[in-house]
Every structure is written in structure tokens, then in C-alpha cells.
Amino acid sequence: MVTVLAPAKLNLGLRVLDRRPDGYHEIETVYLPLRLYDRLELEPRPEPGIVLEGGLGSEVPTDATNLAVQAAAEVTLLLGGPAGLRIRLHKEIPVAAGLGGGSSDAAAVILGLETLRGSHLSPADRHALARKLGADVAFFLSPRPSIGRGIGDRLEPLSGLPEMWWVLVVFPFGLSTREIYEETSRELTLPQGGSRIAPLLGSSGVRESAPNDLEKVATRQHPEIGAVRRVLEQVGASVTGMSGSGPTVYGRFGSREAAEQVARKVGLSAGARTLVASSPGSDSESWGWGVAKG
Ligand code: ATP
């Protein structure tokens, strides 16, 4: 059996640069991995077929539409080996929240199944498979602070970023990544150029809030997103924003203690809850993520 921890991500700013003929968008964003993990256990089973278990709520499919199952089927096609696999998925990453949970699960299955089979894809095949599964999956193959370009799969690691502490506000509703992109794309004049994100990074981390082109549409659907950002600013967050296509809103605080204090006390709209998580610095060697056999 192999156990894999699949981290969440934050997007610090997200610029939609162009729409592509295949429906994806060219973007520029900063990805940060978070120490907030789904846990996956992969185990061969004698009968053929991929089975996904894990007491998952109604919002997470357990059939072939689950990204973890899709990843397992694709890796099995590429590497061969026994067709029977059981995946136990313990979800901690909020679903449809802009935190990349499904994509991270998919990357975790790619890496975990390679370990389980004792056989590896070439880096090029692994990257191509990640890209086929979704725009964010490539980031999770090697999660570290990075600028993402292309559809998010052209990654440039960022050096010099410190560990940072975040309060995440998770809402009781999810947002469809596709819908938010579609509507944003209709409203923007594309293509648009220019980097607005990389200049906001400095040696002490993220200096100021970076704009997210998807936020206008998401906030129009759910004004709570804007309200919560203002609350986090009022209680002292140095940087705030909405992650990816939302709805999760984050605020940066100077220490774990400061983040935990805010997370306990901040007043939120009905149903919203807070989580505290850190993002590892650029030089962090071991931060808990990874594949373990046995
Ligand atoms: P994105 O990476 O597209 O921004 P997200 O982080 O906002 O995604 P996810 O938690 O990945 O959202 O889930 C988006 C949808 O994908 C869910 O509503 C669910 O139906 C489907 N899904 C498929 N596989 C998974 C998975 N392993 N975990 C969670 N959701 C999954």
C-alpha cells in the first residue's frame, strides 16, 4: 500500500490573458502550496477495476468522473500492470473552493501509483498526463511556490519566499471554475498583456494584494466574498485575496498565533468557517507532502 498526502494551493492573484480555442484560458498566477492535505491510500485489489472509497459527501463523485480515478486509469494505461486498484480518499481540502483539491488528488495518484508499481513515467509523459487531467495538476506534481503561465502548467519556481501564515475563509457553497472563467472571459477585452503579479513579490513574501480577474464575477454572484476580504483587512491581514476561481478568501498574518487568534474571533457570514494553514518557503526541503510506501 502507498499513502500520499495531497496539498491544497492558494493563487495569489490571477490574470486572465487570453482565451484559447480549446476553451482553456492563458493565465498568469502565483501558486503557493499549503500545509492542508487530502490523504490517499492506494492498494492493489485482486478484481479488475478502480474503486474509490472514503465516506465522501455528495459533492465528491466516486465514479469515473473523479479526477483521482481518471488519473489512476490513465497511469494504468501508460504503465501497464494489474488493473485492480482501491483508492481510499480522506478529504480535508474543501471542495469546489478554489483550493485545487481534485487536481492535487490527481497528481497524488500519478506519483503514488508510480511508486506502487515500481515503474516510472518519463517527466515529459508525466507532465503531458497532468495537463490532460486539468490545468492545475502539473503544479501539484512538484508543489512549491511558483509562477504559473500558459494554462497554469508552465511553471517557474519562485526563489526567496519565506514561510507564510494564512487564514482561509471557506464558504458553505462552491463555485464552478468553468462558469466563472466563461463569464469573466466574456466581460474582459482579450487578449490583455502585461505582468501585474510577479512585481508584487519580495523577499519578505508577498508585499501587497495581487489582483484576481475572476473575482469580479465571483463577487457579483456572492457579495460575501468582497465583504469577507474587507473584514480580513480590518483585522490586520497584510495581504488578502480570493484563491483561483473562488470562493475561498485568504488573509496573510505575521505568525501562526496571529492567524489562529483571528480565525477564532473574526465575525463571518452564516455558514462560513475559518482554517489556518501555512505555505512553505521556497527553500523548504521537507514540509510533510509526499509519498510513503508500506
Ligand atoms: P479547480 O482546481 O478547478 O479550481 P477547485 O479546487 O475549485 O477546482 P475541486 O475541489 O477540485 O475544486 O472540485 C471541483 C469539482 O470537481 C467538484 O465539485 C467535484 O464534482 C469534482 N471532483 C472530481 N474529482 C474530485 C476530487 N478528487 N475531489 C474533489 N472534487 C472532485
Mean pLDDT: 93
By CATH, the topology of the largest domain is Ribosomal Protein S5, domain 2
Calculate the terminal CA-CA distance, rounded to whole Å: 5 Å
The shape is globular
CATH classification, class level of the largest domain: Alpha Beta
Q: How would a textbook summarize the main sheet?
A: 7 strands, mixed
Range of helix content: 25-40%
Radius of gyration: 19 Å
Order of helices and strands: EEEHEHHHEEEHEEHHEEHEE
Task: Name every ligand kind in the structure.
Answer: adenosine-5'-triphosphate
Poorly predicted regions: none
| Count of all domains | 2
Question: How many β-strand runs?
Answer: 13
Q: Which structural class should the secondary elements be placed in?
A: alpha+beta
CATH architecture title of the largest domain? 2-Layer Sandwich
